[in-house]
Amino acid sequence: MSANAFTVYVIHPAILVGLALILRDVTAPAIAEFGILFLLAVPACWLLAAAVRTIPGVKKIM
Asked: If the chain, 62 residues long, is cut into consecutive pieces of 10 residues, what is the mean pLDDT of each piece?
Protein backbone atom coordinates (compact mmCIF):
# COMPACT_ATOMS: atom_id res chain seq x y z
CA MET A 1 0.00 0.00 0.00
CA SER A 2 2.85 2.41 0.68
CA ALA A 3 3.77 2.34 -3.01
CA ASN A 4 0.35 3.89 -3.77
CA ALA A 5 0.44 6.48 -0.97
CA PHE A 6 1.67 9.39 -3.11
CA THR A 7 -0.88 8.61 -5.80
CA VAL A 8 -3.63 8.61 -3.16
CA TYR A 9 -2.32 11.98 -1.94
CA VAL A 10 -2.57 13.39 -5.46
CA ILE A 11 -6.02 12.03 -6.39
CA HIS A 12 -7.91 12.18 -3.07
CA PRO A 13 -9.22 15.77 -3.42
CA ALA A 14 -11.07 14.95 -6.63
CA ILE A 15 -12.55 11.79 -5.14
CA LEU A 16 -13.65 13.53 -1.93
CA VAL A 17 -15.26 16.42 -3.79
CA GLY A 18 -17.01 14.09 -6.22
CA LEU A 19 -18.40 11.89 -3.47
CA ALA A 20 -19.41 14.92 -1.39
CA LEU A 21 -21.35 16.27 -4.35
CA ILE A 22 -23.08 12.93 -4.79
CA LEU A 23 -23.98 12.87 -1.08
CA ARG A 24 -25.05 16.53 -0.82
CA ASP A 25 -28.75 15.66 -0.71
CA VAL A 26 -28.34 13.16 2.15
CA THR A 27 -30.17 14.43 5.21
CA ALA A 28 -28.29 13.16 8.24
CA PRO A 29 -26.24 14.51 11.12
CA ALA A 30 -22.81 15.77 10.10
CA ILE A 31 -21.01 12.90 11.85
CA ALA A 32 -23.10 10.36 9.93
CA GLU A 33 -22.36 12.08 6.63
CA PHE A 34 -18.67 12.10 7.53
CA GLY A 35 -18.81 8.38 8.29
CA ILE A 36 -20.52 7.59 5.00
CA LEU A 37 -18.04 9.72 3.05
CA PHE A 38 -15.13 8.12 4.89
CA LEU A 39 -16.34 4.58 4.23
CA LEU A 40 -16.77 5.33 0.53
CA ALA A 41 -13.71 7.52 -0.05
CA VAL A 42 -10.93 5.51 1.58
CA PRO A 43 -11.39 2.33 -0.46
CA ALA A 44 -12.12 4.36 -3.60
CA CYS A 45 -8.88 6.34 -3.23
CA TRP A 46 -6.72 3.26 -2.71
CA LEU A 47 -8.38 1.25 -5.49
CA LEU A 48 -8.15 4.11 -7.98
CA ALA A 49 -4.52 4.74 -7.01
CA ALA A 50 -3.66 1.09 -7.64
CA ALA A 51 -5.45 1.24 -11.00
CA VAL A 52 -3.71 4.45 -12.03
CA ARG A 53 -0.31 2.98 -11.20
CA THR A 54 -0.91 0.09 -13.62
CA ILE A 55 -0.84 2.54 -16.55
CA PRO A 56 2.52 2.19 -18.30
CA GLY A 57 4.92 4.97 -17.34
CA VAL A 58 2.87 6.27 -14.41
CA LYS A 59 4.67 4.06 -11.89
CA LYS A 60 7.90 5.98 -12.59
CA ILE A 61 6.23 9.30 -11.83
CA MET A 62 4.01 8.29 -8.94
From this structure: 89 96 92 95 95 89 80
Q: Structure pTM?
A: 0.82
* Dihedral sign of CA atoms 59, 17, 21, 39 in order: positive
Amino acid symbol at 24: R
DSSP 1-62: -GGGHHHHHHHHHHHHHHHHHHTTT--S-HHHHHHHHHHHHHHHHHHHHHHHTTSTTHHHH-
Q: How many CB atoms lie within 10 A of CB 33?
A: 15
The answer to whether the CB of 4 falls within 8 A of the CB of 50 is yes
